[in-house]
Design brief:
301 residues, mainly alpha, MetI-like fold, 73% helix, globular, disordered N terminus
């Protein structure tokens, strides 16, 4: 039956008049897409992997030389690179944890009927629809020690959020939380709407408290969606560049993506920057794999 469905067309259609089958039409759409992905995604990955084993520099005309694992050894023994990784890990933990808490909290508040719910939900989704560079500039104005409203509201005087080495990274993380918490909220709302209402009704009949209902019904059933949001946001947080680069120049907020940019386009050490990109890729894949394994265990319960 499946083969008949793939090969039979409406006899009156133009494709049938030309002798085309469903399989032929499907391949006409799939093959160009696969070619596009290979050319613009897979080929650059392989090309940059080759460069990571060379001393290639994009601003020089001299022929490059094969150096083997030298770029990887130099990067993995560079204290400055490890400092960037520590800064990035701290940023990822603060940013992603904040997004999960704020996003899930907003979803719990929105998971009920109230006036203008659709409008409020749409307004809360606006931050993640904005350009990251624009968001960085916008929050740079909010953090201004001279006339920024944040210092005025909290009574902090002329506290320099972005010029202070101790607070610059956290200021960028707060901005990222503001921008991407709506993404977690959106996924959480989808998970909350799928929870069967009869479970809450049964809990209410048994006079279960809100904490018991939350920990025994809501959280276990929504946890797979939360883990998916955690995977996506962790991967994106590791790649954060534009917000941090736009907002501050403090070394304490130099994420690994900023270091990669400087290595590639300011120092023009293309081969070593490719190696650094693959080190970051391997780390992100390893962390993501741990998340996926845990997600599979949660689904099995």
């Amino acid at each position: 039956m499946a083969s008949v469905a793939l090969t039979n067309l409406d006899p009156a259609s133009r494709a049938a008049a030309r002798g085309w089958s469903d399989l032929t039409i499907r391949n006409m759409f799939i093959i160009p897409t696969l070619v596009f992905l290979i050319v613009f995604n897979i080929f650059p990955l392989i090309y940059s992997l080759g460069y990571s084993f060379t001393n290639f520099a994009a601003n020089r005309t001299e022929p490059w030389q094969f150096v083997g694992l030298q770029n990887y050894r130099e990067l993995l023994t560079d204290d400055h690179i490890w400092s960037n990784f520590v800064i990035t890990a701290k940023y990822v933990i603060v940013s992603v944890a904040g997004q999960m808490i704020v996003g899930f909290g907003l979803a719990l508040l929105l998971n009920r009927s109230f006036p203008m719910k659709g409008l409020i939900t749409t307004l809360l989704l606006l931050p993640m629809m904005m350009s990251a560079a624009v968001v960085g500039l916008f929050w740079q104005l909010l953090y201004s020690p001279s006339w920024g409203p944040i210092n005025y509201v909290f009574g902090l005087g002329d506290f320099a959020w972005l010029s202070n080495p101790d607070s610059a990274l956290y200021a960028v993380a707060i901005t990222d939380i503001w921008m991407w918490s709506p993404f977690v909220m959106l996924l959480s709302l989808a998970g909350l709407s799928a929870v069967p209402q009869h479970l809450y009704e049964a809990a209410a009949i048994d006079r279960a408290g809100w904490w018991y209902t939350f920990t025994r019904i809501t959280l276990p059933l929504v946890s797979p969606i939360l883990l998916i949001a955690l995977i996506f946001r962790t991967m994106e947080a590791f790649k954060t560049f534009d917000i941090a680069y736009t907002m501050t120049t403090q070394p304490t907020a130099e994420l690994i993506a900023i270091r990669l940019y400087k290595q590639a386009f300011q120092q023009w050490d293309t081969g070593k920057s490719c190696a650094l990109a693959y080190i970051v890729l391997i780390m992100v894949l390893a962390i993501t794999n741990l998340y996926v394994k845990y997600l599979n265990k949660v689904k099995e319960r």
